[in-house]
Design brief:
Belongs to the AfsR/DnrI/RedD regulatory family. Pfam families: AAA_16, BTAD, HTH_77, Trans_reg_C. With 1011 residues, the chain is mainly alpha-helical. Helices cover 63% and strands 5% of the residues. Helix 42 packs antiparallel against helix 43 (897-912) and helix 46 (956-970) runs antiparallel to helix 48 (997-1007). It starts with a strand and ends with a helix.
Length: 1011
């Protein structure tokens, strides 16, 4: 076991698995013991260190209780004659590893152990203040040692000095660093400031060491040799692009010409400047920067470069070019040199010729160029410069380049602006909608002078009016977002302009086939030209490459399409193309080509949605219905239920003229998507089902083979459910026959025919596998696992859940993957393998964070509470239950299940706490909601818990009766639940009841006190 105190207190098991420690006081106890690893700490010391002057009335018992809670997660805590001892080695605590590494001079490794302030989450403990102060001092000293032996970083030293203005050693290092950069006056100012503070606050003079540094600075003994800096002044900090900096440095070490290629606003100039400033030749005064944006004629190019050398030439105009090149070659040829040619795109041919000539003349020259297209000469190495990294659903977004840049520029114009709960969603949206493009982000941040971040996000659709607050000293084309795009647009040929504006109809980009069908026949060569000019990006995939525009360029192109008069025709072609595409691929989502179809839908989803939403907005009911029918089942497979539900609602709202079969199908889908057992009105559901049959919809829409039987079943109409199962079972479609058996298993299980249900599930699984439908296979495996678990075979259930999870991950079905892992975690907990259960919860939490699904995180929170409760950590389970309820109240996924699930969980927690009256009341609530739904398997589970409550109350006759009722509801008891197994072992197996389910339902409600 390893304990980390250099930041928030954390614990890892021997295999690296994080260990959940528990509440704040338990963390305090662990931290205190970890500061004396392997040594007993007296109980009196622990009481003083944990409670100080205000110990609890029975401090010894309180301490013993804390130790008991800690032992559940850290069994290495033992009681010895001298006190309590944490039995781990000193090197298993990061505090002592830090001290060892520091003593060995391995300062980078030592400082790398720090994750924040020492003892960050336990600093309110009485012992923590002195310990944290000692550790903070050690950290500062280590950082100072590292600066003393390594490179003096002015920015880092300045930041540290501002935090610790009285540390003389730090001030001396900063003075040396400033002098090394030629900033003698700044160094002397630091000394004067420190001397004043020491006098005012401590009444002392600076140390002899600091006085000596001051004297050396006065004499100029610490200053560098003056080196000319010919690069543009860097007025802002450089943020992000660490990978690009390393890549370009590597390229410049191998190639003599490196061109940074990318769209306007990507930050090519700033990146090139930073690369040049860090290049070794800059320290030798051998770097020159030639801005070409203001050069209008090719013959003026050499003159612009000479201007960067602060040279000029006159004489015969016919000889100027040759003379200029000679003088440039003379300057650059005096030694190794680096020349930055910035903004070559509008002079691309002349810049290419100039660079080629210069490289041939000057062997020791390297050129770093920036352009929106390559120079395309021999020996050129390209470095694409695209957007900064943008968050895509991740919970922690602070490390993304786009977010870092926006926050840096935002804090400059609005001091105090930071990333927190009130701003994070807006910042993520700004970064995503602006493609992570640096100039756009800087212009957006500048708006914070007069707008809130929320006002900015609300106006991103009008970005060209919004983003107009650039620096007055910048080039005109960099002061507004529109000017940036127009600069690129003006460099296009007429044919390129035509294709570029037409490409704006594709929000998700497109492959060549779609572009040639919708925009322009034989488009490849024009398209590749747009790629070369950084108007279009190409995304290399395993199949055909896709071409896309950055959103800002696409918005501008859409304006041009509107002005051209071509928009209506292009939009019509676009929508028809995606109707035909979904016609081709929709049937394949239920076949062995399912993964291939899903890949197509994933790539094209935003285009399909745009076509669908456009058809809905224009009230093109038939087209909208076709598009929705083409994408609906993909959404079901992926678990995108909310999008499907809203789209069905909107199409039905305009669909009075829809064909009768289409109308009936979507009404059935609308009912089934919102259905939970017992909620669809029986008569309404029956009418919709009959409409689907009478209009012939069941012959045209395969998804009805599963939807109609389940709709009838959920509306508590078993006769109609069986009729629709028989209809699907008679279908010529093998997938429909598999769906029929899948639905039949629900009906049989509800009727108590468990053997028949198992056979139906097995047939369904075999048929889904035969047709290649992984979705059906995964769902059936999950059902099989649940019922196998009820037999008491937890191991077999776990194996089935693992297989279902593997299939769900292969499908990239987020909801199904989360549910399979959730159930797997709970099954491990039911087996008693609590370490495995917690590992699955951790994996599920990581998966949910990565996909950014807040709704699924709520469900994982519920599973975590159950896993913790089964591990005996009742207080932690209570805390997790509270968190679940707070989050679930706003959930669109759980809806009316929140009350039921919360009651069920809280009832079990109360029972574990011995609060039997509370447990009885909470379980009664769950029985009420479950019985109202008529869900027999769920009702059986709740009834089993009420039986456990009655047994704990000493009412064994009632407990036995409740077990019999639970058995009647499900057909068997849940012997996979260790609590049920223990109860059966103590009371014996209940005799089967010869009563109807209606009577059993009445009896359990009566036992729960529900009328």
């Amino acid at each position: 076991m390893r304990v980390a105190l250099l930041g928030p207190t954390t614990v890892e098991a021997g295999d690296g698995t994080p260990v959940d420690i528990g509440g704040a006081r338990v963390r305090m106890l662990l931290a205190r013991l970890a500061l004396d690893p392997g040594r007993p700490v007296p109980t009196t010391t622990l009481i003083d260190d944990l409670w100080g002057e205000n110990p609890p009335a029975d401090a010894s018992n309180a301490l013993q209780s804390l130790v008991s809670r800690l032992r559940k997660v850290c069994p290495d805590v033992t009681l010895e004659p001298g006190g309590y001892r944490l039995g781990i080695a000193r090197d298993d605590v990061d505090v002592f590893r830090f001290e060892r590494l520091r003593a060995a001079g391995r300062l980078d490794e030592a400082l790398g152990l720090w994750r924040g302030e020492a003892l960050a989450d336990v600093r309110e403990a009485p012992f923590a203040h002195a310990a944290a102060a000692r550790l903070d001092e050690a950290r500062l000293a280590a950082e100072e040692d590292r600066f003393k032996t390594g490179e003096l970083d002015v920015a880092a030293l300045t930041a540290m000095h501002e935090k610790h203005p009285l540390r003389e050693r730090l001030a001396g290092l900063l003075m040396r660093a400033l002098c090394a950069q030629g900033r003698q006056s700044d160094a002397l100012h630091v000394y004067a400031e420190v001397r004043g503070r020491l006098s005012d606050e401590l009444g002392v003079d600076p140390s002899r060491e600091l006085q000596d540094i001051h004297l050396a600075a006065l004499r100029g003994e610490l200053g560098p040799r003056p080196v000319a800096d010919r690069l543009p002044v860097r007025l802002t900090s450089f943020v992000g692009r660490e990978d690009e900096l390393a890549e370009i440095a590597g390229l410049l070490g191998q190639a003599r010409l490196v061109t940074l290629v990318g769209p306007g606003g990507a930050g090519k100039t700033r990146l090139a400047t930073e690369v040049a400033a860090r290049h070794p030749l800059h320290g030798k005064g051998r770097v020159w920067f030639a801005p070409l944006a203001g050069v209008r004629a090719a013959e003026d190019l050499a003159g612009a470069v000479l201007g960067a050398f602060e040279l000029s030439f006159a004489g015969d105009p016919m000889r100027r070019a040759a003379e200029g090149m000679n003088r440039i070659a003379e300057v650059l040829g005096a030694g190794e040199s680096l020349l930055v040619l910035d903004n070559c795109e509008h002079l691309i041919s002349a810049a290419a010729q100039f660079t080629d000539d210069l490289l041939r003349r000057v062997p020791n020259l390297r050129v770093l160029a920036t352009s929106r297209e390559p120079l395309a000469i021999d020996g050129e190495s390209l470095c694409p410069v695209g957007p900064l990294s943008v968050p895509d659903g991740q919970a922690d977004v602070s490390g993304f380049g786009a977010v870092r840049l926006f926050l840096d520029r935002a804090s400059a114009v609005k001091p105090g602006f930071r990333l927190d709960e009130s701003t994070v969603d807006d910042v993520k949206l700004i970064c995503r909608r602006l493609d992570g493009m640096p100039l756009a982000l800087e212009l957006a941040a500048a708006r914070l002078r007069s707008m809130t971040v929320g006002q900015i996000t609300q106006r991103l659709d009008d970005r060209f009016r919004l983003l107009t607050s650039g620096s007055r000293t910048a080039l005109p084309r960099q002061r507004t977002l529109r000017a940036v795009v127009e600069w690129s647009w003006d460099l296009l040929t007429e044919e390129e302009l035509r294709l570029a504006r037409r490409l704006s109809v594709f929000p998700a980009g497109a492959d060549l086939a779609a572009i040639e069908e919708v925009c322009l026949p034989d488009a490849l060569y024009v398209l590749t030209s747009l790629v070369e000019k950084s108007i279009v990006d190409v995304i290399e995939l395993d199949a055909e490459p896709r071409y896309r525009m950055l959103e800002t360029i696409r918005v501008y192109a859409a304006e041009q399409l509107e002005a051209s008069g071509e928009k209506r025709e292009l939009v019509d072609r676009f929508r028809r193309y995606y109707r035909e595409l979904t016609y081709r691929w929709e049937p394949l989502t239920r076949t062995a080509r399912q993964l291939e179809a899903i890949a197509v839908y994933e790539a094209e989803q935003d285009n399909i949605v745009a076509a669908l939403r456009g058809a809905i907005d224009d009230r093109e009911a038939a087209l909208a219905a076709d598009l929705l029918g083409g994408v609906f089942w993909y959404w079901m497979v992926k678990g995108d239920n909310e999008r499907a539900q809203l789209s069905v609602r909107d199409v039905l709202a305009i669909g009075d003229d829809l064909p009768a079969d289409v109308l009936a199908t979507f009404r059935a889908m609308q009912l089934i998507m919102t259905a939970i057992p017992g909620t669809p009105a029986t008569a309404e559901a029956a009418k919709v089902i009959d409409d689907c049959v009478n209009t012939g919809a069941t012959q045209k829409h395969s998804s009805l083979a599963i939807a109609l039987p389940m709709l009838a079943f959920l509306s508590l109409n078993p006769h109609l459910a069986r009729r629709e199962v028989e209809r699907a079972a008679a279908s010529e479609d093998a997938w429909a026959r598999a769906a029929a058996d899948w639905a039949l298993s629900f009906i049989l299980a509800d009727e108590g025919d468990l053997d028949g249900a198992e056979l139906a599930r097995d047939r369904a699984y075999e048929q889904f596998v035969a047709v290649g439908d992984r979705w059906g296979s995964a769902m059936t495996l999950g059902m099989k696992a649940a019922f196998v678990s009820h037999t008491g075979d937890n191991h077999a259930a776990i194996e089935l859940y693992q297989r279902g999870l593997a299939v769900a991950l292969e499908l990239r079905s987020q909801d199904d993957a989360v549910q399979q892992r959730w159930r797997l975690a709970v099954e491990y907990a039911r087996l008693g393998d609590h370490a495995a259960a917690e590992r699955e919860v951790v994996e599920a939490e990581k998966y949910v964070r990565d996909i950014g699904n807040d709704q699924m995180s709520i469900m994982i929170g519920y599973a975590k509470a159950e896993v913790v409760l089964r591990a005996g950590r009742v207080a932690e389970a209570r805390e997790l239950s509270t968190q679940f309820k707070q989050a679930a109240m706003a959930s669109v996924v759980l809806g009316s299940f929140v009350t039921e699930w919360s009651a069920l969980l809280d009832g079990r927690i109360a029972m574990a706490e011995g609060k039997l009256d509370e447990a009885e009341a909470r379980v009664a609530v769950a029985i009420g909601t479950t019985s109202d739904r008529g869900d027999m398997p769920d009702l059986s589970t709740v009834t089993e818990i009420l039986a456990q409550v009655r047994h704990a109350q000493g009412r064994d006759a009632a407990a036995t009766r409740l077990l019999a009722l639970a058995q009647a509801f499900r057909g068997r008891l849940d012997l996979g639940d260790p609590d049920v197994r223990r109860l059966v072992a103590e009371l014996g197996e209940p005799a089967p009841l010869s009563i109807t389910k209606a009577e059993a339902l009445r009896q359990v409600r009566e036992e729960a006190g529900i009328g």
